[in-house]
Design a protein that fits this description.
alpha+beta; 11 strands; three-stranded antiparallel beta sheet; tt1808, chain A
């Protein structure tokens, strides 16, 4: 992760920046007025694909909502943060109430945000994102640490670290969803 700016940037400034043609291929987010850029690699891409596949397979049999890859979320009353989870899950109930157009950021946080640590991205940044998601309406966050083969699950009330040998579940957000942590990291071994 690279820090781009030192002064606090607004979402309006951020949106103008990401609209520039030279920034079309960059992965830029805004967190508390700080512009950050992630540099996802193959490992990150594999894990994104893994979670998308697992969640979509589950949702095919349990039509509770929809998944998205790199969908931007921005609370309209929050002038300094606009985030792009690696994978988002939005329940049908929330989607029906709020997703009326396909342009711009979704005006609320997802039910589940999945963030996969990119090379050079600090745990502090991932935790700051998780705390922001939860403080602004997300119900569950999964932080994936590929190098350590750990998944951190966070809700407003709990935080847990899962290693191979444990099972990742969807809790109240995706009841019945589960995957072995070892299976998540199997392609990385």
């Amino acid at each position: 992760m690279t820090t781009i700016a030192q002064q606090q940037m607004t979402v309006a400034d951020y949106e103008a920046l990401i609209a520039l043609p030279e920034n079309a291929d960059r992965h830029l987010e805004l967190l508390n007025g700080e512009l950050i850029e992630e540099m996802p690699g193959k490992q990150h891409s594999r894990l994104t694909k893994f979670f998308l596949y697992q969640l979509d397979a589950f949702l095919k049999d349990h039509p509770l909502g929809e998944t998205f890859v790199e969908l931007r979320h921005h609370i309209p009353t929050e002038p300094f943060t606009s985030l792009i989870p690696d994978v988002s899950y939005i329940s049908t109930e929330r989607s029906a109430k709020h997703l009326h157009n396909d342009e711009g950021a979704v005006p609320f946080m997802p039910d589940l945000a999945v963030e996969i640590q990119s090379p050079g991205q600090s745990k502090k940044t991932l935790l700051a994102k998780a705390n922001y998601y939860l403080a602004h309406g997300a119900r569950l966050v999964w932080l994936i640490y590929p190098d350590e083969q750990i998944i951190e699950t966070l809700t407003a009330a709990e935080r847990d670290l899962l290693q191979p040998g444990k099972t990742l579940t969807g809790g109240d957000v995706l009841p019945g969803f589960s995957v072995e942590v070892a299976a998540v990291f199997m392609p990385l071994a």
